[in-house]
Amino acid sequence: MLSKRVIPCLDVRNGRLTKGIKFKNNVDIGDPVETAKRYYEEGADEIVFYDITASSEARGIFLDVVEAVAKQIFIPFSVGGGINSVDDMRAVLRAGAEKVSVNSGAVKNPDIISQGAAQFGAQCVVLGMDVKRVPVTKDIPSGFEIVIHGGRKHMGMDAIEWAKTGEALGAGEICLNSIDADGTKDGYDIELTRKVVQAVSIPVIASGGAGHPEHMVEAVTDGMASAALIASIVHYGEWTVPGIKRYMHDQGVNMRMVW
């Protein structure tokens, strides 16, 4: 049985670590490089970085931060935000990341997924999905819609169908973020997570809403996710990475432990 992963997520804006609720009202909470180093030393399985305004501001990714992080941590980390071409992917991987996360860029140009997988391997390409609950319609039969540009633009695309398309194009993993749950600390959207997991055969990372380790347990058991993304719960010192992993282990979840 594969171990479940705990993955701290660091949202970066203007080179600084930031956090908001439902993609709004972001505040500065520290230095992303030092924070990443701390989570690595605490035993995080991976780390995810998002440049949260790169796409909406139509600018390139924060390569200086990626290079600085690569010198400090020695676990896999992925980078997303503002990645719109294979050249952008190559630049991020050369800067030291193991994976690239494509989100808005992939919605606008799905071929970037297959091109990236062909160039660098499917294991390097993560399909990031930002999702909102909406009324069920003919175009969105699941009731979950894809939105892009940091939750600013609704696309009229069904999230479950987009997950299937992303896998068919060559994505090796999905990072699934519920905008409705993001930053609320009320728990992941288990229904959304389970629907996507059941629709694809690649690993799915649950994201958005972690407020207590029990939520992570639910995400990887009831939600069937391969990993749980965390942010506020560790950024604000309510729990540590080792504390979360011990809790999950004690609840019977198979974890890679650092005692």
UniProtKB/TrEMBL annotation:
SUPFAM superfamilies the UniProt entry points to: Ribulose-phoshate binding barrel
Pfam families documented for this protein: His_biosynth (PF00977)
Superkingdom assignment: Bacteria
Entry's localization field: Cytoplasm
Pathway: Amino-acid biosynthesis; L-histidine biosynthesis; L-histidine from 5-phospho-alpha-D-ribose 1-diphosphate: step 5/9
Gene Ontology terms for molecular function: imidazoleglycerol-phosphate synthase activity; lyase activity
Major localisation: cytoplasm
Keyword Cytoplasm attached: yes
Described function: IGPS catalyzes the conversion of PRFAR and glutamine to IGP, AICAR and glutamate. The HisF subunit catalyzes the cyclization activity that produces IGP and AICAR from PRFAR using the ammonia provided by the HisH subunit.
Quaternary structure note: Heterodimer of HisH and HisF.
Protein name, per record: Imidazole glycerol phosphate synthase subunit HisF
Originating organism: Paucidesulfovibrio gracilis DSM 16080
This protein's encoding gene: hisF
